[in-house]
Amino acid sequence: MSALPTTSREWQLVARPHGWPAAEDLALREVPVSEPGEGRILVRNLHFSVDPYMRGRMNDVPSYIPPFQIDQPLEGDAVGVVVASAAEGFAVGDTVAHFLGWREYSEVPAAQARKIDTSLAPASAYLGVLGMPGLTAYAGLFRTAGIKEGDAVFVSGAAGAVGSLVGQMARVKGASRVIGSAGSAAKVRHLTERYGFSAAFNYKDGPVAEQLAKAAPDGIDVYFDNVGGDHLEAAIGALNLHGRVALCGAIAQYNDTEPAPGPRNLFMAIGKRLRLEGLMVSDHQDLRPQFVQDVAGWIASGDVVYDETVVEGIEHGFDAFVGMLRGENTGKMVVSLPQ
Prior knowledge:
With 339 residues, the protein is of the alpha/beta class.
């Protein structure tokens, strides 16, 4: 076995952002590496994920997950190879997924790591289509929104890691119409030409409500919300009787310094008997085995395709994170580490 490294680089939070994160809010620091302790494994990371929810963890406010701590490493999903093991069930050379990303090497409690099958898809796919974003799409569409065959489905942020999969899963399950919104003409074309959406529009081209009405003249039955704001308001207006909303994210508001107003037409939820339900993927881990089986099958058959926007090098982790918040990615934004 080759000698273990003595140091590793990791991204740490050094100041809490006000509004958009700035480069000086994070620092790439060198830290020591040692043999893993009992019940732990040392992982050489291949790829780590940057995701919208991480912006909220940079604020010191109560939430569903503790905030990042100052002068401590950031966290998030990562995949890598075990280079040393002091834990039963894990051997050197195993490929694993874990939650200690944003660093070159991670000492991971064995209970918080899981082996992944790279015969189904490359390791990086377990950060996207076979990882947290994919499970979010799967649980949100099938369990939270309860999609039924023949439903018309609208997805905001549809070119992102979650939205692109929601639309395709809806199509696979027999949706009558799948509409997506995105932030550029190129992404709009991608939604229809690559992902098989029935219709798509650029939310920057005009009022969302007007564009949605044209794309879904008979209304919608399911809305998968990744954006919030004017998209949620437009969807409430377009939803049919007994429509369902999976509230997954509100990326349009994550960097606001003042509270955003709520949908002005929320009263319509009463007469339409709408169901709006928040979605936390951590509540749906029981679905993971079936999710991986189903989605791996859809990838193999070509029913579902996926994209990754790859940024090379740990030193570009902050740029990848801010780029993702600005919508510069198509599909999953991934930071890959040279080997």
